[in-house]
Amino acid sequence: MNSGLIDWLRRRFAGRAARRSTDALGVPPPAAETPVWCVAANIVHERAYGPGGAEKRRGTRQFAPGAKVYVFSYFWGMGGDMVTVVGRQRKTKRYITLSMRADHLANWRAELVYSPHVIRQILDYGEFAKLPRGGTQSQSRAEEIAAMYRQRGAASQPYTTRVAGGTASDGAVGRQDASNPD
Predict the structure, then answer these.
(1) Residue 47: pLDDT above 80?
(2) How many CB atoms lie within 10 A of CB 43?
(3) Which of 1, 14, 58, 132 is 20 to 30 Å from 68 by CA-CA measure?
(4) Is 118 part of a structural domain of the chain?
(5) Residue 141 near residue 128 (C-beta atoms within 8 A)
(6) Total number of domains constituting the chain
């Protein structure tokens, strides 16, 4: 390969690693991010679409049916009908953030978030940024919000989770009913 091309590639992409390894002030992030409590939900398997809900569509345009999303911002002035979520996009599998209707979500629950990207989104824009990270206050607030949406009639559907005794390497996947979490 041409040494000029190699030098150009090194110069071109040298800053990317530096940008990812520091924040805006040049301070590197902590080695292990502290987990944050947040509300998690799944995208509904089927939703009504079209005039009068005549058609059924699987999932949404951006998320596959059953995809896990983290809900970190709520538009309370509209009765909580619209929420801001972060999750993996249907086709690219990259994290995306968007506002969507709350009735396209099912299985509302409180969960600890470990993903650095999702934690950054929550702390930059979410309601949980004002609460202590991983504390009981943020856990109770997340459970309160999830319970409110369940009381309002949010959908409940079966979802896929890892079996308690299984590991990621053996690929043990089981069906779990949302109404019976055990």
Answers:
(1) no
(2) 26
(3) 132
(4) yes
(5) yes
(6) 1
